[in-house]
Amino acid sequence: MRYIHLFIAFLLIQSVSAQSILPVIKATSKKVSINDGGYLDKDAWNLSPKARPDIYTADRSRKSKWVTFYTDIDSIRVKVKPGTRYNFIILLNGKDSCYTQIASAIPPENILKNDIVKNDTIPFTLTSFNAIHVKAVINSTDTLNLHFDVGSFDLRLTKDAVLKKTQLLSNQPDALAGKTNPNYNKMNKVSTLQMGTLVLKDPQTGVTTLTSHDMDGRFGWELFDGKKIEIDYDHNLLIIHSKLPKALKGYVRAPIDFIRSFVCAKGTFEIAGKKYEGEFLFDTGSDQAAIIDSSWAAKQGFPKDMKLIKSSVLRDPRGVKYETRVVLAPALKVNGFKLTNIPTLVLGSQNPTGFEINFLGNDLLKRFNMILDFEKDQLYLKPNNLIGLPYKANS
């Protein structure tokens, strides 16, 4: 589960102590299922009597929605509005009071207000795998190669990089000597993350096995919540704005549609006189151009007779097969901009995210300079000097 900033969490803890009577539901199992705005995660939450409160941050949304907690014998349904929180107790086995809070992912407006104009710049290089590569320094000592992935959330480092390139396991000398396996749940804290002129304090950090080629980890959009991040491919800069830039000539604006807290926007394929509209997750960590969800394709009646570029069968670490076809889509519109002859990977099996969503990868997104406004949840796109570059799969 993802958590909002520590200072906000502190305010929420104070509110629990000040509230005298809380709703109570019962449970005999520590496992709790959560329906968040219509998306059900079975046994997604573990009760913790020691946490006061244990905070569940609802998926990001600027619209009111319902969140329901299901224990094995009871339930509670809460209406979550932006900037709100709701406290209750889950009584485990009739004796342990689990203080629980459902919080909006969007902080109260008065916390976000800041009249100081400040911009930070982060140089990057675009790799041959379409990754936004940034040099980063953690704890003022360890230099790592990270990539910015709009389809990710916080800071994630590979286990290999943590072990070989950082001092985060200095508290585990036997692991460093190869005598025992590292315990990545007990690694030292990342207290600072420096990228360009930006220094972030105490970023939420975890480990991962999924990064772009030759990267030591990735960082996602949540590090810039409440700010505006500009991706300028013309000058190879990430610019973190506290205020929206005034010079927006050529940019076209559209809402960011958050789905399961992922950054998404609407797009429309135009094929043989028909339109196929859907939601597309922005995935700058992918070197593909576009990826189509198999369920969405079936519901839309997405054409199966487009020109085939290639087909393959992929297997994940569990041995599960994912059949894919890469076809040539004639046209795709995003934010009113029309792209043509897009190599489109069509999944032949269930989407790995677990829900129905299409993807735009960085072989397509890199063709636009963009501003992601995470205060107003608005997207700005403008074609850049890469707009006419051949797609990787077409070359």
Summarize the structure in words:
The chain is globular. The strands form 5 sheets. Strands 10, 11, 12, 13, 14, 15, 16 and 17 form an 8-stranded mixed sheet that branches. The chain has a 6-stranded antiparallel sheet with strand order 9-19-18-29-30-20, with no helix packed on it. It has 395 residues and is mostly beta strands. The chain has helices spanning 6-18, 109-112, 159-165, 173-176, 294-300, 362-365; strands at residues 24-27, 31-36, 39-46, 54-57, 65-70, 75-80, 85-92, 96-103, 119-123, 125-126, 132-138, 142-148, 155-158, 192-195, 198-201, 205-208, 217-219, 228-232, 237-241, 252-255, 257-259, 262-271, 274-283, 290-292, 308-315, 321-334, 337-347, 358-361, 368-373, 378-383. The longest helix has 13 residues, at 6-18. The protein has 6 helices and 30 strands. It folds into 3 domains: 6-112, no CATH class; 119-241, Beta Barrel (Cathepsin D, subunit A, domain 1), CATH 2.40.70; 252-394, Cathepsin D, subunit A, domain 1 (Beta Barrel), CATH 2.40.70. A hairpin with a 2-residue loop joins strand 2 (31-36) and strand 3. Residues 1-19 have low confidence and may be disordered.
